Amino acid sequence: MGNSSKSFTFETNLNSYLLKNNFIILIILLSIITGFSSCNTVKYVSENENLLTKNIILVNDKKNVDDEITDYVVQRPNSLVLGVPFPLHFYNIGNKNFESDYDQWKIDNPKAYNFTTKVFSEKQTRGLHNFKYNTHKWWLNNGEEPVIFDSKKATQTVDNFMQHYHNEGYFNVKAYYDIAYLKNKKAAVTYYVNTDKPYTLDTITINIESKVLDSIYLSQKEASFIKKGEKFKYSLFINEQNRITNLFRNSGIYHFNKNAILVDADTSNYKSNIDLIINDSIANIPYKIQKIKKINIYTDFAYNTKDNPIQDSLNYKGYFFLTQNKLKYNPKLLLDAVFIEPNDIYKDETRELTRKNLRRLNNFRTVEIKYNELENDFLEASIYLTPLKKYSIGFSSELTHSNIRQLGISGKLSFLNRNIFKGSEILKFSVQGSFLDSKDAADSEKLLNAWEIGGDVSLELPRILLPFKANKIIPKSMSPKTIFTVGTSLQKNIGLDKQKFTGIIDYTWESTTTKKHSFQLLNAQFIKNLNIDSYFNIYNSEFEEIQSIASTYFNEDISTSDVVDFINLNIDSNFESSNPTEFTIAQNIKNRYNIITEDVLIPSATYTFTYNNSENYKDTDFSFFRARFVSSGNLTSLLATKKDENGIKTLFNTQIAQYVRTDFEYKKFWNLSFENVLAFRSFLGIAFPYNNSSTIPFSRSYFIGGPNDLRAWKIYDLGPGSTQSGLEFNVGNLKFISSLEYRFKIINSVKGALFVDAGNIWDISNSAVTDPEAKFNGFNSLKDIAIGSGFGIRYDLSFILLRLDLGFKTYEPYLESNKWFQHVNFKNNVYNFGISYPF
Hints:
20-stranded mixed β-sheet; alpha+beta; 34 strands; Ubiquitin-like (UB roll); globular; 23% helix
């Protein structure tokens, strides 16, 4: 549990000398920053030039706080990192006059040059020269050259301000700039903007000559963006132009385009009279509503064989399927992704919806839709589909590392079959295996002392597959999908050698472009432990706790196979009355043993709602919200008839897990400036066992710590609550975590981050053996929230981002006193290496 092939966590192990000199390290870091800040920033600024250090924008005598206004500034100072222009300093390290300086040095120092050429060969001397030249060139290419104040760019900025506010209805706006020359060839620019009063919309006249267009417009007139009394904004007219264009083009007007819309504005006394004119024709051809008479679908189109004759054709409900070979797609099923219909009017939205849904099938390399005009104003639609290869095979391998698995070599072989049942289905089969170096293995001294093997099969259908028709509830426009997955995996000589079987039936759909839904009708997992007898060899710290109790209070020396029997026989109510702390420790260990070693069947149903208004993967200003609800074991427990000796219902001689779990996650990103982003993430999760279960299965419990979580602690190291058990795996059924991260560019592809993480896990089972410090007791437990802070370095390769974060324990709730800043040093920090951002 908690292992990842893409990220790992490890703690520093510096020598004792370094640990005793954290203060010296801090002084060195501060000295570097101070040295940079005191460097000569005007090294490459000529005498008649000035380094631009600041832009100030005053709008109506108030300092501007609108990021949109800042975007109109043409020239900006050199970028800062924590207030220091590091990219400029990097640039200044290089010598852009290296060649001329080198030639001059040879002239000024002939003896030194001759001595060098005599000691070294000519080739070695040239190699040394090239090395120095390339080093300086690297600093110059990766740094940022000084931004020299340019009056033309300042004037352009003023013009941009004027144009912007003019578009916002401030027709009397005035703007200018003033430059302040500072010491040491530096300058600051202040931009002054006086907007005056905005103009408002007064009389609005609509002039549409075409009766066809006029009738369509009147049906949606109330949706107009241009209304009397509104502030004059150029964006309103753009929005209205787009609205009208979309309205007409989705009402059968195939030839309409936005250039047919003209706006005339008469302004006076801070009011604007608007005359909106829509021409009645294009190229002297009157606008008409056009219908689609014929639809052709070419399912095996290829550009290099486009002139080959059609060999197979089929007319299905007015759709003509044409192929150069045998038709390989079921027309009825393929039409689930087609929204253009015969005898329907032309609509842009059905054209785009068809293109989008055909692409999401992942069966076609290209999708192209064209229209031809026929007689009597009819249209012919042609859909050209270029299929992907039916079969594909892939292989991948990777090295992995985690705090549990020291080294892993894994490989995965996958096979994919497209359109297996002629309905654009995708069948995937994969088998994966790993050789691991695990500290949990029975023979932990050997390298690669354990292995894993697994396989899974999935079938993806681009429709909702249910015994009844679900089209009215989830129409095909919502991009429905059904995925069946069956998988198994086996671990050997690692941990408890778990064997797992998984079966999933998942339905997904998109109600809007920002809202997605997933309903897993079944997510069943069967977990069987094959090596329970090794438990206390693997979780050795728990064995040492019991061994200490046995030797201290009972003068016994027990083995790892005797732990559970020893607790059952000796750790009773009599022992509790005299040794309550040790009693709790022993019962906790026994309880955790029962949780981790249990064979369990988890038949759950899950619904997940996701809201994400991100426009693309490069978007840095958006919101994300996800809510998940899980219910496990209700129907299965109801139908099961067998019980074990403890009265627990079982299936296949295995306990049925019964619980409910709810998670909420919210993320918000703010784009502060160019490549400077503030990111916030918060997560709250709670799980309740009931009826057939007294605990949450270990695999479905909450843990905290790690590279994508609370980064100052390793995975499973913290909690629950303010306990400090020292156990290998700490889990709970209530979790809260919140993170705030400031991301910034350092130089080129190298980026940095400052972060603060806060969170913890708690137990809410009300078990009598649970440590009171591990339980959640309302607002009083908020003092148990641990806080970690740190910084990170990221290297952006465009297609992948490599990340290294250093987390420092800032607030430790389990300490008796002085919980703040007790271990903020390089002895207790945690390194987290990962792929991509933590959230």
